[in-house]
Specification:
The protein is of the alpha/beta class. It folds into two domains: 3-96; 108-213, Immunoglobulin-like, CATH 2.60.40.420. It has four helices and eight strands. It has helices spanning 3-23, 29-55, 64-87, 204-213, and strands at 108-113, 126-127, 130-134, 140-145, 156-157, 172-176, 181-186, 194-200. The strands form two sheets. It has a four-stranded mixed β-sheet with strand order 2-1-4-6, with no helix packed on it. The protein is elongated, with a radius of gyration of 24 Å. It binds copper (II) ion. Copper (II) ion (CU) binds next to loops.
């Protein structure tokens, strides 16, 4: 067995698995595809190299101690993965879906990404920066990229709940909030761009009363 090749291939496999896990953890859709391709390639290289390293110069002679160590590592990794699956951590969140699908609200809220948002010296970017919306009334927010130059931005939740991916000048991104909470978000290429949406709920009678007074008809 060739120790160097074996270690390199194990390192590639670990890096590859970690990379795939991270990219599916909702860090950012913007980098997901590129990162995944690189991680998958590392993983593949590791898997292809491993037998070469292990079997070079005849089958490896292993001691009981080595078997025990490998056993402990395999057990720990399996237990960690099983635990992650149970609590829906990282990529396993996909097993539990993304929460209830929610329709668009009768009233939409518009946030403008104003010209010059790409400039870190400019304090105005998402305008208005911090908004409050009410479930069933105006929980659908539309962000529009109003740059006058060809600059793409993202609307990316800090916790990975939603991510627009890059969208260019003149384009919009729409998201409907399903639950109460404070949602802070940022722009991936310009991390100084930050905004928040506070989502609150009120009793259904009040919702109906407000919509009736505003003369807004719902389609449900
Ligand atoms: Cu941006």
């Amino acid at each position: 067995m060739d120790k160097t090749i074996t270690w390199i291939s194990l390192l590639l496999i670990v890096t590859g698995v970690a990379g795939v896990f991270l990219t599916y953890s909702g860090v950012s859709k913007t980098f997901e595809h590129g990162m995944n391709a690189v991680s998958a390639l590392l993983l593949l290289m590791g898997v292809l190299m491993l037998p070469g390293g292990l079997l070079r110069g005849g089958p490896p002679k292993v001691s009981v101690k080595q078997v025990v160590i490998v056993g402990i590592v395999v057990f720990t990794v399996s237990a960690a993965l099983a635990g992650a699956a149970v609590v829906g951590y990282g990529p396993f969140r996909l097993l539990y879906g993304t929460g209830p699908a929610v329709g668009e609200s009768p009233i939409k809220v518009f946030v403008s990404i104003v010209p010059g948002s790409w400039d870190p010296r400019q304090t105005e970017n998402y305008v208005p920066k911090d908004i409050k919306v009410v479930l069933a009334i105006n929980h659908t927010v539309v962000w529009s990229n109003d740059e006058d130059l060809d600059v793409a931005h993202t609307v990316t939740h800090d916790g990975g709940l939603f991510d627009s991916g890059l969208f260019g000048k003149g384009e919009t991104y729409k998201y409907s909030f399903a639950r109460e909470g404070l949602y802070t978000y940022h722009c991936v290429p310009h991390p100084w761009m930050r905004g928040s949406v506070e989502v609150v709920s009120i009793p259904p009678e009040q919702v109906n009363e407000i919509l009736r007074r505003l003369n807004v008809t719902t389609t449900s």
